[in-house]
Amino acid sequence: MTRKITVICVDDHPVLRMGIAAIIAGEQDIELVAEAASAQDAIELFRIHRPDVTLMDLQMPGMNGIEAMLEIREEFPQARFIVLTTYQGDAQALRALKAGASGYLLKSMLRKELMNAIRTVHAGRRCIPPEIAAELAEHVTDDALSDRETEVLRRVAMGTPNKIIAVHLNVSEATVKGHMKSILSKLGANDRTHAVTIAMKRGFIDG
User: Fold this and answer.
1) Cα separations (Å) of 183 from 135, 153, 178, 207?
2) How far is CA 101 from the centre of its chain?
């Protein structure tokens, strides 16, 4: 009997963790060895179990999934991750892949795709669904938003006027307007609201 592929599931929603446990329970070659409800728990459980594959949610209270992956990979460079998310956005997918994810799955795909993704990633290959790959390819030549532009846009999304954003970021209002002009150009947006909508869809900022 060959050794089973060991898996940890990290997600702050118990119902999703139960669903994943139920899917894996029917498999002969895969075993769920631990579940974590937070990124901090995930890091501790990883140290204990050293799983072959970690299923990592991206949006969690406190430390997010990308930060957790970076921290785990610093200690365990060979760690393999499949990101679980509700967002199809290319910017978020790119961040996850740069942080070390080998697989990227929308939660709506889990029932059909999860087992194949675990086996593929365990075998040392990437697993990126066609719709995510297409989204990445579509924007591969786009200029990415800088960290400061993302911060400005995050505050715009909360309804903060330029004058207040300038005070918070300790810059002039003219600088904030310059950032907004660059943001509109990079995202191909008509106005502030349109920019926020595009940025949420693509995963630059959370919805």
Assistant:
1) 19, 8, 9, 17
2) 9
pTM: 0.74
- Where do the domains of the chain lie, and which CATH numbers do they carry? 5-138 (3.40.50.2300), 147-202 (1.10.10.10)
Contacts of 146-151 spanning 24+ positions with Cβ under 8 A:
148/179, 149/179, 149/182, 149/183, 149/186, 150/199, 150/204, 150/205
pLDDT band at 47 (very low <50, low <70, confident <90, very high): very high
Q: Residue 76 class from Cβ within 10 Å (0-12 exposed, 13-18 middle, 19+ buried)?
A: middle
**Which tokens is 32 given?**
């769920």
Find where tokens 């949420």 sit.
200
